[in-house]
Amino acid sequence: MPHGYDELKQSWKHYAPALLEPYVSGRAGFVAGVLPEDLLQLPSRGVWYALEKRFGAGPVRQALLPNVTVPSPVGHQPDGTWLRRTNMVGVNVRTVRNFFNVVKYAFTLPASQDSIHLLPIWEPGVVASLYGMASWHINREFFSHELAEVLPHLDTVEKQLKITINLLHVMGRSVGMDVIPHTDRYAEVVLANPAHFEWLQRRDLVITNHSARLYEAVQWRIVDWVRDYGPAVAWEGIPLDPTVFFGETMPETERTRILFGEKSDLWGRNARRNRLIQALYDEGLEPVPATMAPPYRGLAVDPNEAAKTVDDDGRIWRDYVLTRPEPMSRVFGPLTRYRLYESKDDNLNWELDFEKPRLPVWQYTAEKFADVARTFGFDFMRGDMSHVQMRPGGVPAETDDFYDIHRYIKRVVQREKPWFGYFAESFLAPPDVMAYGDEPDHLEASLADSTLGDL
């Protein structure tokens, strides 16, 4: 067995077929003695040759059809508690460069590592963070041109994601996605659905308005912008009444095309979005940034010069701070959270009314993630920021599905996939440090099946 980086590289260069043979023949559970970076260079034809030899030509060829959904290896489970027994690997697709390379990387995993969590798969936002999703479109940077050249029917990133999960299922792996309760602050999602988010109005160092219905002013400004600049695509009879344009009779897909253009035109969509951001910026209208840890609520503009950013278009942005910060308090300037609850007293004191969930927002978010799980075949979710619990009184003695957005999404997906599990991001810090109340109690109430944290 070679030792050291250089010896491993030379061994693969000269003995690749021999190194693959134990795995291909089924005598070994993974490809040993090979660097993952070298397996990522394996040509696509070599990948499915190896898979066909190990798992059979029929299952592999079926898996390469994006209109086929390969049954999940955990599809027989009655619920998501199987996540308590799994051995999980997390994969940042950027690290392996494209979706299909996840299959190649899986060649290096022992059979005992039977689940794979994919970090966020959507188009990223302004700081290119995978956790600041800009739209519901799958990130095209994860497209494999080499795979499309060999199999021309896999000509979109969506098709390649689907067959990647199919192949991982054939290999006996369950696959999970991130469920993110926030977006990039000026995401297409936000601009196409202003009422689903919280807004503020800023003039230099002062928040002049953060009332509960400020989103209505945002809706009017967006409609005026469409009237002034026209639609991104040819469209007759655009309803320029905000209650219609942002209403249920106008599907989000159509509204997004009018605002930004066709999905295939990423440059054009981003250019239109930037112009719309400018229109809102001129009015001082901004989505409220996401926060972490108590007290969560109550924002002010950070007056420090270091908290000022000037972007490429000359716009001056300011960071925000919590007015009564505690040791773990954070404000995430690039992100904005879904507005899940109504506010008390028109948001005068930044207080949320947890007895009044905003049902359309819950339904929208859950249906979107459920559609992703259904379309691509995901088996579980990692809940991003699962530790967030904003009720100052801690975890209530009695909770329902509107207690927590991750719980709600899990329950919605389980209507179609009873085995769908929930893997929670957490810190398991002492009470009232990272969240109000006891974090394990919160995770139990959220119906988390397992957790990432300091156990």
Please characterize this protein's 3D structure.
- With 455 residues, the protein is an alpha/beta fold.
- The chain has a domain of 151 residues.
- It is built from 16 helices and 20 strands.
- α3 packs across α4 and α6 runs parallel beside α8.
- The chain is globular, with a radius of gyration of 24 Å.
Question: How are the elements arranged and paired?
Answer:
Blueprint: H1 5-24, H2 36-39, H3 44-55, H4 57-63, E1 88-91, H5 93-96, H6 100-106, E2 115-118, E3 122-124, E4 133-138, H7 145-150, H8 157-170, E5 174-179, E6 182-184, H9 188-192, E7 199-203, E8 206-209, H10 215-229, H11 242-245, H12 252-260, H13 266-282, E9 285-287, E10 289-292, E11 299-301, E12 308-310, E13 316-318, E14 320-322, E15 330-337, E16 341-343, E17 352-357, H14 359-376, E18 380-383, H15 405-414, E19 421-425, H16 439-445, E20 450-452
Parallel strand pairs: 1-2, 2-5, 5-18, 18-19, 19-20
Antiparallel strand pairs: 3-4, 6-15, 7-8, 7-9, 10-15, 11-14, 12-13, 16-17
How do you describe this structure in short?
This protein has 455 residues and is α/β, with parallel strands linked by helices.
